[in-house]
Specification:
Among the domains are: 106 residues; 98 residues, Beta Barrel (OB fold (Dihydrolipoamide Acetyltransferase, E2P)); 155 residues, P-loop containing nucleotide triphosphate hydrolases (Rossmann fold, 3-Layer(aba) Sandwich), CATH 3.40.50.300; 157 residues, 3-Layer(aba) Sandwich (Rossmann fold). It is elongated, with a radius of gyration of 35 Å. The relative contact order is 0.07. 38% of the residues lie in helices and 15% in strands.
Length: 849
C-alpha cells in the first residue's frame, strides 16, 4: 500500500473510532490536506483522485456525524478502487468486497437520535436567546459531489423570526452598558448585529509546524504550553506575559504586553491555539499579542479566516467577535429569505442564511466571495425594484401631448446665433418624442459644463408655450436663476419671440412681496407664461392655471419633496431635469434608474479646453504672478479653499483668513471679493453680482461657486487643498473658467508634495472629459462623495459597489423580469419581498427621481 493511501487509512480509522468528531487531526481532518497532497503526487496518485479527496475533506467540518460517516466510507471505496485498478461502475456490495477488511476504516456505531436541542424550534415559540455554549443547530447540508457548483440551500422558515427585533441585551454578556456601546456602532437589535458586516478579514486558516515558520507569516500555530511567566517592566508601569509552546518540531515564544491575567488563564501542559504575525527578537522568531484559545474550544478566534469589525471605545475585537458568533450561528439560518426562490435560482445566488454565516465567519475565500455577491445583489435588487416601480407608475399617468411641425422647429433653431451640436440635436429629438407621447416626460439631461443644456431646455419650453401652456424653471441659487431668466428671456421674448417680456418673470427669495404677489396673480390667470425661480416657486401661494413643463436645473441639489411639490402644481406636467455632473453608467442605472436619460457629451465648437496643472505649495509665487498678469490684461480669477474658517482639527487653509492675508500681503493693488456658504442668500448674490460686473479682480471662495455660475471674463481657477476634492467636483470648479473664449487655466495645489492623492490629481491634467473623470471618481471615492450628498429614498449600500456595472445590470434584469409578472408584488409568494422592500425604502426619504 502506498504511504499516502496508508496515511488516509490511519486517519479515517481514527476518525471512525472517535465517532466522526473531526478531531482525528488537530484542527480538523481538512488540515491534513497540505502535506497529504504533496505525498499523494509523489506516490503518483491520479490528479482526479487527489481532487476528490480534497473536495470531500474541505467540506468535512460542515457535515453531521452521519454524513461524515457516509462521506469517508464512499471516499475510501473510491481510493481502494483506484488503487486496485477498478475503474468500471460497481455496486455498494462490490465496494465492500473490494476493500480489504483489515485496511478499511472500521464501521462506526449507529448515529444517536437527534436531540431536542439540535432541532430547529417552532417559529411560533420565539426561541430563547443564544448562549455562548449553545450547540449549533443540526441543519448542515449533506455531502455534495465534487462537481457541485454550490452547497445545497437549507430550508427557509415560513416567516421572519420575531425575536430578531429583540434588543441586544438578551445576549448573555450584554448588559445595559455594553448595549450602549453596541448602539454606538448602530446595533440595537439582533437583526442589526446580523447585518453589521466585518470591515476586513485576516486569514489565519493556514497552519504550519513551528519548525517551518518564517518571519512575516500570519497564521495559526498549535502547541502544548511548556512554561508560563509574567514580569513587570519599566518600574512596574507595564507587564509582560511570556508563554513557550512546543509542537514536537520546535518551540515558539509568545508574548502579551499588559495582560498579566493570562498567566492565570494559561497553564503548563495546556494545548492552545495562537494566531497572529511572526516577528523576530534577538534573532529568534516570536509571536507578539496574538489571538489565542484552548484547543478544546471551537476555533472562533484562530485557525480560520477571521472577521475584523468596526469598533468603538471600550469594545475589544475579541469580545465583539464572540457576541457576533452567538447571534450569527444561531440566528442566520432562521432569517426568512425575502427573495423568491425562482429569483435565487435564476440569479444563481447563495441562500441568505448561508450568506449571513459566511459573511461573518467564512470557511474559505470562495465562500466569502459568494456571500458578498449575494448580499450586494440584494441591495441593488431592492433599489432596482423601487426605481422601476416609480418609472412604471409615472408612465401610467396621462400627460398632455405636444407636437410641432418641422418647419416651425427649424425656424426657432435658425434664430440661434450658433449651430446645434449633434448631441444637442439628439437630445432635442428625445424630448420632442416624450412631449408627443401622451405620457408625462420624465427625462434627465446630463451634459458637461458648457455643453448647451439650457438651449435645449429653452426649445422644449417653446414647444409647450406655442400651445398656450405654462413653464416653470427651478434653479438651486439666485444667481443661477437670474442667469436662466436672462437666457430664456433672450430666446423666448426677443425679436420675433413667442412671448412678451412681461410674460416671463423671475421669483427669488429676495423678490419684494409686492412683486411676488403680482407674479402669483399672473401665474394663476395665465398672464405669466414662464416663471424662473428658486425655492420661492415652491411656496403654497404659487398656483398655475396650466403648468405643463417643469424644468429643474442641477436636480440633485433639490430634495425629493421639493421636486414633488413643483410637479403637484400642475396636472401630470412634463418633467425635464438637468445636471452638469457627468453620471457614470452604473449610477444612471441605479440612482437615476427611474428617469429616461439623454447624454450631451459634445462641446460647442470654438470652446478651448482649460489648461490644467498640478503645482505645489512652494510654487505659489508662480501662481500669483499668473493671476497678476491675467488681471493686468483685463481678466479675472477664482481662488477656491476647502474651508470657510480655519479648524483646529483640519490642517487646511480657509477662505476667510486667506482673503485677509492675500489682500494685505500679496495682492495689495487688486480688489478681492469673499464668498462662502455662511453668507446669507442675498449676500452671496451681491458678491457674485459684483464679481460678474468686474468690481472684483479676484474672488476668494469656497465651493459655493461650483454649480452654474457664469462669469465669462474669468479665466484662472486656483484650487487650494485640491487633494480634498473629488475629481467630479474639481471638474465642476474648472468649468467656471474658459466660458468667454481665449486661453484659460486651472491650477491644482495639493497640501503636500508626496501625498498618494496627488497621483489622482494628475488625471485632471490629462483630460477635460467629465465622463472619464466621473467614472474614475466613482471608483475611487464611491457614490456618496461623488454626488456630494446622500441620495434620499434608499438606505445606504453596505455591501454593493455602485461602480459594479455587471452586478447592477444583473440585478436590474432580474428585477425587470419579476415586475413583468407581478408589477405590484401582490402575489402571496412576494409578501416577504414587499415587506423587505418597504423597510429598505423607509430608511431613506421618498423616491429618488
Amino acid at each position: 500500500m502506498k504511504p499516502s493511501i496508508d496515511k488516509l487509512r490511519k486517519f479515517f480509522t481514527l476518525e471512525a473510532n472517535r465517532d466522526y468528531d473531526n478531531k482525528a487531526v488537530m484542527g480538523g481532518l481538512a488540515k491534513m490536506l497540505d502535506n497529504w497532497e504533496a505525498e499523494a503526487r509523489h506516490d503518483q496518485l491520479s490528479e482526479g483522485l487527489i481532487q476528490v479527496v480534497h473536495n470531500r475533506l474541505q467540506d468535512y467540518h460542515r457535515l453531521s456525524p452521519e454524513s461524515r460517516k457516509e462521506a469517508l466510507r464512499g471516499l475510501w471505496s473510491r481510493v481502494r478502487r483506484e488503487e486496485k485498478g477498478i475503474t468500471e461502475d460497481i455496486t455498494p456490495d462490490q465496494e465492500e468486497k473490494a476493500d480489504a477488511p483489515q485496511e478499511a476504516p472500521q464501521s462506526p456505531p449507529e448515529p444517536a437520535q437527534e436531540t431536542q436541542a439540535e432541532q430547529t424550534p417552532a417559529q411560533s415559540e420565539a426561541p430563547p436567546p443564544p448562549q455562548a455554549d449553545r450547540a449549533e443547530p443540526e441543519t448542515q447540508p449533506e455531502a455534495q459531489p465534487a462537481a457541485a457548483p454550490r452547497r445545497t440551500a437549507r430550508p427557509k422558515p415560513d416567516g421572519p423570526p420575531a425575536a430578531l427585533m429583540a434588543p441586544t441585551t438578551v445576549l448573555d454578556g450584554v448588559g445595559p452598558k455594553n448595549a450602549e456601546k453596541l448602539e454606538k456602532l448602530g446595533m440595537r437589535t439582533l437583526r442589526d448585529m446580523l447585518y453589521h458586516y466585518p470591515r476586513r478579514y485576516d486569514d489565519y486558516s493556514q497552519l504550519k509546524t513551528i519548525n517551518r515558520l518564517k518571519f512575516g507569516d500570519e497564521l495559526t500555530v498549535l502547541g502544548t504550553v511548556q512554561s508560563v511567566s509574567s514580569r513587570r517592566l519599566h518600574g512596574g508601569k507595564s507587564s509582560l506575559t511570556e508563554v513557550i509552546i512546543n509542537d514536537s518540531t520546535a518551540s515558539l515564544r509568545v508574548t502579551w504586553f499588559n495582560q498579566p491575567w493570562l498567566a492565570k488563564s494559561i497553564k503548563e501542559g495546556d494545548q492552545i491555539v495562537v494566531a497572529g504575525k511572526i516577528d523576530q527578537y534577538l534573532g529568534r522568531l516570536v509571536m507578539n499579542s496574538p489571538e489565542w484559545e484552548p484547543l478544546e474550544e471551537k476555533n472562533l478566534h484562530t485557525n480560520r479566516i477571521l472577521p475584523v469589525y468596526p469598533l468603538t471605545a471600550k469594545i475589544s475585537q475579541r469580545w465583539l467577535r464572540t457576541q457576533m458568533d452567538k447571534v450569527v450561528n444561531y440566528w442566520a439560518q432562521r432569517v426568512a429569505d425575502p427573495l423568491p426562490s425562482h429569483v435565487i435560482s435564476a440569479a444563481e445566488l447563495l441562500d441568505l442564511g448561508d450568506a449571513l454565516l459566511q459573511i461573518h465567519f467564512p470557511d474559505s475565500w470562495g465562500d466569502l466571495k459568494e456571500a458578498q455577491h449575494r448580499l450586494a445583489f440584494d441591495e441593488i435588487f431592492y433599489l432596482q425594484i423601487g426605481v422601476l416601480q416609480q418609472k412604471r407608475q409615472w408612465a401610467e399617468r396621462t400627460g398632455q401631448p405636444f407636437t410641432v411641425e418641422q418647419e416651425w422647429l427649424n425656424g426657432e433653431i435658425a434664430k440661434l446665433p450658433f449651430q446645434l451640436t449633434s448631441a444637442q440635436q439628439n437630445t432635442l429629438v428625445d424630448i420632442l418624442q416624450d412631449l408627443a407621447s401622451g405620457q408625462p416626460m420624465n427625462r434627465l439631461v446630463q451634459g458637461d459644463v458648457g455643453s448647451g443644456k439650457t438651449v435645449v431646455a429653452a426649445l422644449a419650453a417653446a414647444v409647450v408655450l406655442k400651445e398656450g401652456s405654462q413653464v416653470a424653471i427651478l434653479a438651486p441659487t439666485s444667481i443661477l436663476a437670474e442667469q436662466h431668466y436672462i437666457s430664456f428671456t433672450n430666446f423666448l421674448a426677443g425679436e420675433d419671440g413667442l412671448l412678451q417680456p412681461d410674460q416671463i418673470q423671475l421669483m427669488l427669495g429676495a423678490t419684494p412681496e409686492k412683486i411676488k404677489e403680482e407674479i402669483r396673480t399672473g401665474l394663476a390667470n395665465s398672464q405669466v407664461k414662464v416663471v424662473v425661480g428658486t425655492h420661492a416657486l415652491l411656496e403654497d401661494p404659487v398656483l398655475f392655471e396650466n403648468l405643463q413643463l417643469a424644468i429643474i436645473d442641477e436636480q440633485h441639489r433639490f430634495g425629493v419633496k421639493q421636486r414633488a411639490t413643483l410637479r403637484s402644481k400642475g396636472e401630470n406636467p412634463h418633467l425635464l431635469v438637468m445636471t452638469a455632473t457627468p453620471i457614470p453608467r452604473s449610477l444612471a442605472l441605479t440612482i437615476y434608474g427611474d428617469l429616461d436619460l439623454s447624454v450631451m457629451d459634445e462641446m460647442p465648437p470654438g470652446r478651448e479646453p482649460v489648461d490644467t496643472y498640478v503645482l505645489y505649495p512652494r510654487e505659489r509665487e508662480r501662481i500669483y504672478n499668473l493671476i497678476r498678469r491675467e488681471v493686468k490684461e483685463g481678466r479675472q480669477a477664482f481662488i477656491i479653499y476647502p474651508l470657510v474658517e480655519e479648524s483646529e482639527k483640519l490642517d487646511a487653509k480657509a477662505a476667510v483668513e486667506e482673503h485677509e492675508r492675500l489682500q494685505t500681503e500679496v495682492f495689495r493693488d487688486l480688489k478681492l471679493g469673499l464668498l462662502h456658504g455662511r453668507l446669507k442668500g442675498d449676500e452671496k448674490d451681491a458678491v457674485m453680482t459684483q464679481f460678474r460686473d468686474k468690481e472684483f479682480d479676484v474672488l476668494i471662495s469656497t465651493t459655493v461657486v461650483e454649480v452654474g455660475v457664469d462669469i465669462p471674463n474669468a479665466n484662472v481657477m486656483v484650487i487650494e487643498g485640491a487633494n480634498r476634492f473629488g475629481l467630479a467636483q474639481l471638474h465642476q470648479l474648472r468649468g467656471r473658467v474658459g466660458r468667454g473664449g481665449g486661453k484659460s487655466y486651472c491650477i491644482l495645489i495639493p497640501e503636500w508634495e508626496n501625498g498618494v492623492d496627488n497621483e489622482r490629481l494628475t488625471v485632471m491634467t490629462e483630460t477635460n472629459d467629465g465622463f472619464v473623470l466621473a467614472e474614475k471618481d466613482l471608483q475611487q471615492r464611491g457614490p456618496g462623495q461623488f454626488l456630494g450628498t446622500r441620495q434620499a429614498g434608499f438606505a445606504e449600500l453596505d455591501m454593493a459597489s455602485i461602480s459594479d456595472v455587471r452586478l447592477i445590470e444583473k440585478a436590474r434584469k432580474h428585477a425587470q423580469a419579476l415586475l413583468e409578472t407581478d408589477p405590484d408584488l401582490t402575489h402571496p409568494d412576494h409578501n416577504s419581498l414587499r415587506e423587505a422592500l418597504d423597510q429598505r425604502w423607509q430608511e431613506g426619504e421618498g423616491d429618488i427621481s
